[in-house]
Design goal:
- The chain has seven helices and four strands.
- The chain has 152 residues and is an alpha+beta fold.
- It has two domains: 97 residues, 3-Layer(aba) Sandwich (Rossmann fold), CATH 3.40.50.300; 52 residues, no CATH class.
- Strands 1-2 form a two-stranded parallel ribbon. The chain has a two-stranded antiparallel sheet with strand order 3-4.
- Strand 1, helix 3 and strand 2 form a beta-alpha-beta unit.
- Helix 1 packs across helix 2 and helix 2 runs parallel beside helix 3.
- The protein is globular, with a radius of gyration of 19 Å.
- The protein starts with 6 loop residues before the first helix and ends in a 10-residue tail after the last strand.
- The relative contact order is 0.10.
Length: 152
């Protein structure tokens, strides 16, 4: 049996609109909220041709969401579940050449000393400065090339 939801969680599950973002601390029930929202959307429109895209930040949450939906829905063909990073990487692999990226890009994580933003905290404000501390820049390079050129 699924856990009981708080009023705020129920509000997210029952929100009207095409997209929502659920943010909360670890262990607060985000995955359950998203699973129930997806389940509700599909239950309310069984014959509609739309699909649902459910993204998370971690592989663990994406796997857990995929498992819950498969268990509850039986057939989750109308749902795509992945991490936001894997989803973006798939888009770049499929359509990156339109933006002059290499045909088979390889993700490259830059070393921390190169990934530091060149912005000063005073220019961005205190909250923006705090966000840059966890910033990681990612580039792309051609798989077949020996060049280390990163496309940013």
């Amino acid at each position: 049996m699924a856990p009981e939801l708080s009023p705020e969680q129920l509000q997210a599950v029952n929100a009207v609109g095409s997209a929502i973002v659920v943010t909360a601390s670890a262990g607060s029930g985000k995955t359950e909220v998203v699973a129930r929202r997806v389940e509700r959307l599909l239950d309310e429109s069984p014959n509609e041709p739309f699909r649902v895209l459910a993204l998370s930040y971690t592989v663990k949450a994406a796997d857990e969401l995929r498992d819950r939906l498969a268990h509850r829905l039986g057939d989750a063909r109308r749902v795509d579940t992945d991490t936001i990073h894997a989803f973006a990487h798939n888009i770049i692999r499929q359509h990156g050449t339109w933006a002059a990226l290499p045909p088979e890009p390889e993700l490259v994580e830059l070393p921390p000393q190169l990934a530091k933003p060149k912005l000063t905290p005073n220019a961005m404000g205190p909250s923006a400065a705090a966000r840059t501390n966890s910033c990681q820049l990612v580039g792309f390079r051609r798989r077949s090339s020996s060049s280390q050129t990163c496309f940013k």
